[in-house]
Amino acid sequence: ESGTGKELLARAIHDASARRDRPFVVFDCSAVAPTLVESELFGFVKGAFTGADRERAGIFEQAHGGTLFLDEVGELPVDLQPKLLRALEARQFRRVGGNAWQAFDARIVAATHRDLAARMKSGEFRQDLYYRLAVLEARSPPLRERRDDIELLVERFLAAQTPPLTVHDLPPNSLAMLRAHDWPGNVRELKNTLARLVVFQDAGHDVLDFPGRVESGQTGHGRAEDPLLLLPLREARQQIIERFEQAYVAAQLKAHGGNVTRAAEAVGVSRQFLHRLMERYRIRSG
């Protein structure tokens, strides 16, 4: 699926190989106009077409000796698939407009979010190209199938912030809500959600209103979408209590001008207890 980190996995394969000191080249088959794919893959000679005022090396040449990552290979136009197959089989290619064949040596790693078996049946993907590419297959599971990774990913992304942050810098109970979400956008969505949390740290849990979330009382795909409804009763109740306490303490302090003693007297608790709540929810008196 999109956002699971396919390019990172391809990079890890490259970095763990004997080719690690040679180029790692990425070509996104879905990001280039169909009329330009061939010249991007194989390069072109001067005068090959209008605007070709100089020769240019394609990605096969750029990846020589290293690794070529063909991302979203399922989007490659059908009429160009035989040319890619021929280059892979012969381990050589010819620039657009040129006559000379050039040999290349590169590890090919291909990825797609498409169901290639279905696309082969419909004629959108060549069977012979599929079997040429599918020497070893690896599946990059969606984030909802590896929820144990969420905390590790959160820690990694927060540590990369400037200045570095930890999970304790997030609004209360954020981690539990992040674990409860299904992440249709996978790791990419998680990373963007954390960036939003960091920017709007004082906004609390409103930042975690995920796109596509169904209103309370409704369900989607046979299940409730509110993350609280996915938690055990005791944990959900605790989260609601903590949210109330945080909002209540902040409101009382504001109502008493930030004076902790007066706020504690007004709500009927000791000054020390109110200080403990302030520390727990990172509330300042000023």
Overview of the molecule:
By secondary structure, the chain is mainly alpha-helical. It has helices spanning 6-15, 34-42, 59-62, 81-90, 116-122, 127-133, 149-159, 174-180, 186-199, 233-255, 260-267, 271-280, and strands at 24-28, 43-44, 56-57, 67-71, 92-94, 101-103, 107-110, 219-220, 223-224. The protein is built from 12 helices and 9 strands. The strands form 4 sheets. Strands 1-4-7 form a 3-stranded parallel beta sheet. A two-stranded antiparallel sheet has the order 2-3. It is elongated, with a radius of gyration of 27 Å. The model is unreliable at 212-224 (pLDDT under 50).
Task: Describe the secondary-structure layout.
Layout: H1 6-15, E1 24-28, H2 34-42, E2 43-44, E3 56-57, H3 59-62, E4 67-71, H4 81-90, E5 92-94, E6 101-103, E7 107-110, H5 116-122, H6 127-133, H7 149-159, H8 174-180, H9 186-199, E8 219-220, E9 223-224, H10 233-255, H11 260-267, H12 271-280
Parallel strand pairs: 1-4, 4-7
Antiparallel strand pairs: 2-3, 5-6, 8-9
Helix pairs in contact: 7-9, 10-11, 11-12
Overall geometry comes to: elongated
Question: How does the helix and strand content classify structurally?
Answer: mainly alpha
The unreliable regions are 212-224
Strand count, sense and barrel status of the largest sheet are: 3 strands, parallel
Straight-line N-to-C gap: 47 Å
Compute the average pLDDT.
84
Across the major sheet, the strand order is 1-4-7
Extended strand count: 9
Number of helices: 12
Based on CA atoms alone, the radius of gyration comes out at 27 Å
Topology as a string of helices (H) and strands (E) = HEHEEHEHEEEHHHHHEEHHH
Helix content: 40-55%
Q: Tell me the strand percentage band.
A: 5-15%
